[in-house]
Write a structure and sequence with these properties.
The C terminus is likely disordered. This protein starts with a helix and ends in a 14-residue tail after the last helix. The relative contact order is 0.16. It has seven helices and no strands. By secondary structure, the chain is mainly alpha-helical.
Length: about 200
């Protein structure tokens, strides 16, 4: 399966480049994040911790990309509440299965991917919003199945769920560059009602 992993993962990086990743702050940061995901895919099968660290850095770069577009803090309140409930539930379910040596890594990863989702909802990304929000939610869900696969159960169903969700997420994030980055190099300040 590894050659197909290489093909699929380099595919979303090339999609990002074709969308103009080099032409805006958003594009560069998102593109670097997708390169981090690609590296995680290539390293992960041989070194799980190394792969997880690649994804950790990728999520930090995604967060920086959303910040580069500007943030509307009030749009993050509801997603933050939802992600806290889900995040706590996932940690309570997962931690009894995680080796003590990897506990800090798992918690740190949960924090950064949760932050990535919440900030995506607050980002001023205009017409790219459906691509980005669908992408980050699918990414989050795919990682639940990765964690289940690694720590809870080795059932093959995990692969059939996590890979389609993950690659769809990465393609959507890559496509968002052409909408949010290449054609809008400055942060898009969406109108806010004075009475809001």
């Amino acid at each position: 399966a590894y050659p197909f992993t290489v093909l699929a993962s380099t595919g979303f990086v090339l999609t990002a480049m074709a969308g103009g990743a080099l032409h805006s702050s958003y594009g560069r940061l998102m593109g670097l994040g997708l390169i981090g995901c690609c590296m995680g895919d290539l390293v992960g099968p041989y070194h799980f911790i190394g792969g997880a660290m690649c994804f950790f850095m990728a999520h930090l770069l995604f967060i920086a990309a959303y910040a580069a577009r500007g943030l509307q803090w009030r749009n993050m309140i509801s997603p933050l509440a939802v992600i806290l409930v889900f995040g706590v539930g996932i940690v309570l379910w997962l931690m009894p299965h995680v080796p003590s040596a990897e506990t800090q890594l798992v918690i740190a990863y949960m924090v950064v991917i949760s932050g990535m989702v919440v900030l995506a909802f607050g980002a001023k990304i205009g017409n790219g919003r459906p691509f980005v929000l669908t992408g980050v939610v699918l990414f989050f869900v795919s990682d639940i199945f990765v964690a289940r696969w690694k720590y809870v159960s080795s059932d093959g169903i995990n692969a059939f769920l996590c890979y389609p969700l993950y690659y769809t997420a990465c393609i959507l994030l890559a496509l968002s560059i052409a909408i949010c980055g290449n054609f809008a190099t400055e942060p898009e300040y969406e109108p806010v009602s004075e009475r809001g």
